[in-house]
Write a structure and sequence with these properties.
The protein is mainly beta and 113 residues long. The chain has one helix and seven strands; from the N terminus they run βββββαββ. It has one domain. A hairpin with a 5-residue loop joins β2 and β3.
Length: 113
């Protein structure tokens, strides 16, 4: 069973992928399998494979707490200041999400991050 992320009144399915630099990506799709948002970002820092960098500002404000409550990530252990905003590094904690799955039925989100 895949963890559901509740955010802005939506029930979202996480799609785990990988950025070109090898860091983990988290995209969220709605119940119709349509892209809703990208919760993560890639950054030029070294992090381990079990970690992800979360964007919790602008339209993503609040997603950090939603991912924690859904059991997708642990509370962040590191902050990365980047100009006017802060990024958060957290350990992925769920085994319920298969990497590179595509719940959108072929939309290809995980492979094109």
């Amino acid at each position: 069973m895949t963890n559901v992320v509740k955010f802005l009144g939506e029930e979202l399915t996480p799609v785990i992928g990988e950025y070109a630099n090898g860091q983990t990506s988290i995209q969220l799709v709605d119940q119709d399998g349509m892209p809703f948002m990208t919760a993560s970002v890639a950054h030029d820092v070294n992090i381990t494979d079990d970690c992800v960098i979360i964007k919790n500002y602008s339209e993503n404000e609040g997603i950090l707490q939603a991912l924690i409550e859904a059991g997708i990530i642990e509370k962040p252990f590191c902050e990365i200041p980047t100009g006017f905003v802060t990024l958060y590094v957290a350990v992925m904690i769920t085994d319920d999400i298969d990497p590179d799955i595509d719940p959108a039925g072929g939309y290809g989100l995980a492979s094109h991050v």
